[in-house]
Design a protein that fits this description.
Blueprint lengths: L1 H23 L27 E5 L14 H16 L3 E5 L24 E13 L11 E11 L5 E12 L13 H22 L17 E6 L7 E4 L2 E5 L2 E6 L3 E6 L6 E5 L27
Parallel strand pairs: 1-2, 1-3
Antiparallel strand pairs: 3-4, 4-5, 6-9, 7-8, 7-10, 10-11
């Protein structure tokens, strides 16, 4: 009898999880429902307010892929759960068919399949490192340290928020047979994502207005005029790998994250990922490459 009851509980848990994930799946056609109101009561703006859809793309696992390949979707669903539980007025969803979070497509403007979402969240596991523990009494054992990146985009594909976070998980001295998501590498990455999401929730709660309608195709995102210079001048400027001229240089840049690289013979290259904004100063002082020290021949005789 106890076995039958236990099996029934397991079935109920699995069914609830499946229903929750089905609700959180997003294909670009899901639209938030208007809150139910009394037909006899006057309709107010608050009655018609829609929940903000926070849409998670599949996680780019990077070094975690060999340890827990299923985390590609398990992590986004877990993060969407936390949005649903902890953020009133927000609806966490997962776009299973969206490009992975590190795909170049996310740097090319909005993705049509995100239509209807207010914000798109990209997550990526950057590194996993095993840290040697101490040997003294009370010292921490060996543990895994994970670094993750969380990036949030608005409906036009521009970066709203970015955060690197660190998470840790102890390495058992006597590991037992565990599932992939119970491995210390996966636990450390999940802990790091939880930290990143916590800070992001604080940021998102302070955003009073987030449109869920992108700029129309006939009206592309605004371009911003910036000046790229360097010391010394005359350096080559590459935007997303494409040569655009030499410094000083005036450019019209899209309002999204771009990679700027400045190269000058005899100097180390300067490179940054930036989101252009008006009056942004870009004039790095390039660092000379040290000349090799000549080696004098030994004295004769």
């Amino acid at each position: 009898m106890l076995i039958i009851r236990a099996l029934a509980v397991v079935v109920m848990v699995i069914t609830c999880c499946a229903c929750m994930q089905a609700k959180q799946r997003y294909d670009g056609t899901n639209q938030p429902e208007i809150l139910a109101v009394d037909p006899a009561a006057p309709v107010t703006a608050a009655d018609l307010r829609r929940e903000r859809i926070v849409l998670f793309a599949p996680t780019a696992l990077g070094p975690l892929a060999p340890f827990d390949p299923a985390a590609r979707l398990e992590f986004p669903f877990a993060l969407a759960d936390r949005v649903d539980l902890l953020m009133k007025g927000h609806d966490g969803r997962v776009g299973e068919v969206l490009p992975d979070s590190d795909a170049p497509r996310w740097n090319e403007g909005r993705v049509p399949a995100t239509a209807g979402a207010h914000v798109v969240v990209l997550t990526q596991v950057i590194s996993l490192n095993q840290v040697k523990g101490g040997t003294g009494l009370g010292s921490r054992p060996d543990h895994i340290e994970a670094v993750v990146d969380l990036r949030a985009l608005d409906v036009n594909g521009a970066v709203l928020y970015r955060k690197h976070a660190v998470g840790e998980a102890d390495v058992s001295e006597k590991p037992k047979i565990v599932t992939d998501n119970g491995k210390p590498e996966s636990l450390a990455a999940a802990a790091a994502l939880d930290v990143a999401l916590s800070d992001f929730r604080t940021f998102l709660s302070a955003q009073n207005e987030l449109a869920n309608q992108p700029t129309g195709l006939a009206n592309p995102p605004t371009h911003i005029a910036i000046v790229v210079d360097s010391a010394p001048s005359g350096a080559d400027v590459l935007i997303d790998g494409t040569f655009r001229g030499t410094t000083p240089l005036k450019l019209s840049m899209p309002a999204r994250q771009v990679k700027i690289r400045i190269e000058h013979q005899g100097f180390s290259a300067w490179e940054r990922d930036v989101v252009p904004r008006a009056d942004m100063p870009i004039k790095p002082a390039l660092i000379p490459i040290p000349l090799p020290v000549p080696v004098e021949p030994p004295p004769a005789g």
